[in-house]
């Protein structure tokens, strides 16, 4: 049955000139049928360079598909399940962001890519977890508004030496804030020879105990380092699926086995097939909002 679905997906991809992009947190079977698997930055860059395709099937969550649609407005972008959202992306509202801008008119505004299109349209520049420190360092102002992830805002401020005003104060990812210092201590006891890497969305006390802090793209590169034989990975559990597939002979251990992003898992092979057959669910971003949001995304891509 699964083979039959995969065969149909392949046929429809050719017939409709479609490409499948998947985030590193997608389930194994989706990663395996994707044409490209990456983190948010890599997927942005890829979506910006898919001239050959007419349709992008985006296996990830809604803000990622919106971003692809904003930077590739001539493509039809499909999200196989329209309930695939990111809780963090919805944590900052347009009104909150506008209020912060009015209160701090001298601050430049950096929006984490994990945000909705309408809030991105109020940004001076967008960042991902792979480039947040570099983007914030590039700002002219010493104080900056950052939304919506508190932990990434603090992390990018430390990397750049600038002062963040974070909107909202408690924006967070429920998956990455699951990790606790005790998890790191236990991993050190259980795997004394392993290195430990965590994501910048983790709390500061966790980041400080890890050997490395990396975006998922950075973790993929770190895993290829010949010095790394055993790596404990503090991010969504399915990144270890990719690391294991790409690095035979090495061991990748999830820092917590319950670190699931539930909405990343609602995309299935059946839904990808249906998306291609019926060309649903098309992600459409209002033209005016998209034009404004594109400015901040393009600035980030130019600096990447
Ligand atoms: S892992 Fe966290 S930040 Fe990433 S999509 Fe899921 S909820 Fe959003």
UniProtKB/TrEMBL annotation:
Q: Keywords of this protein's UniProt record, alphabetized?
A: 4Fe-4S, Cytoplasm, Iron, Iron-sulfur, Lyase, Metal-binding, Pyridine nucleotide biosynthesis, Transferase
Q: According to its UniProt record, which cofactors does this protein need?
A: [4Fe-4S] cluster
- The protein's predominant localisation is cytoplasm
- Gene transcribed to yield this protein: nadA
The name of this protein is Quinolinate synthase
**Comment on bound cofactor:** Binds 1 [4Fe-4S] cluster per subunit.
Q: Pathway, per Swiss-Prot/TrEMBL? A: Cofactor biosynthesis; NAD(+) biosynthesis; quinolinate from iminoaspartate: step 1/1
Q: Which Gene Ontology BP annotations are present?
A: 'de novo' NAD+ biosynthetic process from L-aspartate
EC nos? 2.5.1.72
Tell me which NCBIfam families the record gives.
nadA (TIGR00550), PRK09375.1-2 (NF006878)
Record-annotated residues binding [4Fe-4S] cluster? 86, 173, 261
Q: Which residues bind iminosuccinate?
A: 23, 40, 112-114, 129, 199-201, 216
Name the family: Belongs to the quinolinate synthase family. Type 2 subfamily.
Q: Which SUPFAM superfamilies match?
A: NadA-like
The top EC class is transferase
Q: What does this protein do?
A: Catalyzes the condensation of iminoaspartate with dihydroxyacetone phosphate to form quinolinate.
């Amino acid at each position: 049955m699964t083979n039959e679905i995969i065969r149909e997906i392949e046929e429809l991809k050719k017939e409709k000139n479609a490409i499948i992009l998947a985030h590193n947190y997608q389930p194994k079977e989706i990663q395996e049928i994707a044409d490209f698997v990456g983190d948010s930055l890599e997927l942005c860059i890829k979506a910006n360079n898919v001239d050959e395709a007419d349709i992008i099937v985006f296996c990830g969550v809604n803000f990622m598909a919106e971003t692809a649609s904003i930077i590739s407005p001539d493509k039809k972008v499909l999200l196989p399940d329209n309930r695939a959202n990111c809780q963090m992306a919805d944590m900052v509202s347009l009104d909150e962001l506008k209020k912060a801008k009015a209160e701090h008119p001298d601050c430049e505004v950096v929006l984490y890519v994990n945000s909705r299109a309408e809030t991105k349209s109020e940004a001076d520049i967008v960042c991902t977890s792979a480039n947040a420190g570099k983007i914030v360092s590039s700002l002219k102002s010493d104080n900056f508004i950052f939304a919506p992830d508190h932990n990434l805002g603090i992390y990018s401020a430390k990397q750049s030496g600038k002062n963040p005003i974070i909107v909202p104060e408690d924006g967070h990812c429920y998956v990455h804030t699951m990790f606790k210092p005790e998890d790191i201590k236990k991993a050190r006891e259980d795997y004394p020879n392993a290195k430990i890497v965590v994501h910048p969305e983790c709390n500061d006390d966790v980041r400080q105990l890890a050997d490395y802090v990396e975006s998922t793209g950075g973790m993929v590169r770190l895993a290829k380092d010949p010095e790394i034989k055993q790596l404990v990975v503090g991010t969504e559990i399915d990144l270890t699926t990719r690391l294991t597939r790409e690095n035979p002979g090495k061991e990748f251990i999830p820092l917590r086995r319950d670190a699931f992003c539930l909405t990343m898992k609602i995309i299935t092979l059946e839904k990808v097939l249906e998306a291609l057959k019926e060309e649903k669910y098309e992600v459409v971003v209002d033209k005016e909002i998209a034009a404004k949001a594109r400015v901040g995304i393009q600035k980030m891509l130019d600096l990447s």
